[in-house]
Write a structure and sequence with these properties.
The protein is mainly alpha-helical. The chain is built from 8 helices and no strands. Helix content is 85%, strand content 0%. Helix 1 packs antiparallel against helix 3, helix 2 crosses helix 4 and helix 4 runs antiparallel to helix 5.
Length: 251
């Protein structure tokens, strides 16, 4: 007879928890949209990953929060039956969730910083032959550091990063040995001299680009105006769609 009250309590906790989880997810999605979370993600370049998805960044994060809350609900519901392996497993997952949220936040912030650095370098050194390459390299390094920090937060960075670094180092050493052993000293010297001569040729251009480039404040103002203009266009299209829908419903 003790099982039936526990089962009823289990089902009641599930129903109430599901409603609460849905409500929290909706609130978080609206708050993230109001604070401009989606715009920050779009500036960071993560938007390209979500182009084929039917959800935007705020919706995905709200979904994650929903399932996280449901894990708490399930843990409480199974706790009605006393100590059991399922509750222990869920408790371990719940304890790991904060690290996942922090890791996601680190990647988003790193992507935004990488995009800002890329735009700054392109606007400053865009006239140079290596300006775009330098911007991409700096952006990639910043994003890579963010990913490494996120993996470190998830406590899996040591194994992953070490394996990647060892593989990269072994590949670089192997290429160097093959190049030098295969008579690559003369071509390497020639390319180095070409690089130095090209740098000497573009040194005046570099100074001119830096001198004529807009300041960081001006570039930030331009980016802000561009974002506001884009937001205004999206708002106008939404209003037009609303008016069109209202006109379609009129007799």
């Amino acid at each position: 007879m003790e099982f039936l009250p526990k089962l009823l309590g289990f089902l009641l906790i599930l129903v109430i928890g599901y409603v609460v989880a849905k409500l929290i997810a909706k609130i978080i999605a609206k708050v993230l949209q109001k604070v401009g979370f989606d715009k920050a993600v779009e500036k960071g370049g993560v938007k390209k990953v979500l182009d084929k998805s039917s959800y935007d960044a705020s919706d995905i994060l709200a979904k994650i929060v929903f399932y996280a809350v449901m894990l708490f609900v399930l843990s409480m519901a199974f706790g009605v039956f006393g100590s059991n392996p399922i509750s222990t497993y869920l408790a371990a997952i719940i304890g790991y969730l904060p690290k996942v949220f922090v890791a996601i936040l680190i990647v988003v912030i790193a992507a935004a910083i990488a995009a800002a650095a890329k735009g700054l370098i392109q606007n400053t050194l865009g006239g140079l032959s290596y300006g775009k390459v330098l911007a991409n390299v700096v952006s990639g390094l910043i994003l890579a550091l963010g990913v490494i920090a996120a993996l470190n937060q998830l406590q899996i960075a040591t194994n992953v990063v070490n394996a990647v670094l060892y593989a990269t180092l072994a590949a670089a050493v192997g290429i160097a040995i093959v190049a030098v052993g295969g008579g690559g000293i003369t071509p390497m010297r020639s390319r180095w001299e070409n690089t130095l001569s090209k740098y000497d040729e573009e040194k005046p251009k570099l100074a001119e680009q830096v001198r004529n480039a807009p300041s960081v404040k001006d570039q930030a103002a331009q980016a802000k105006d561009k974002a506001q203009s884009k937001a205004g266009q999206q708002s106008g299209s939404q209003h037009d769609a609303g008016y069109a829908a209202a006109g379609a419903h009129r007799p």
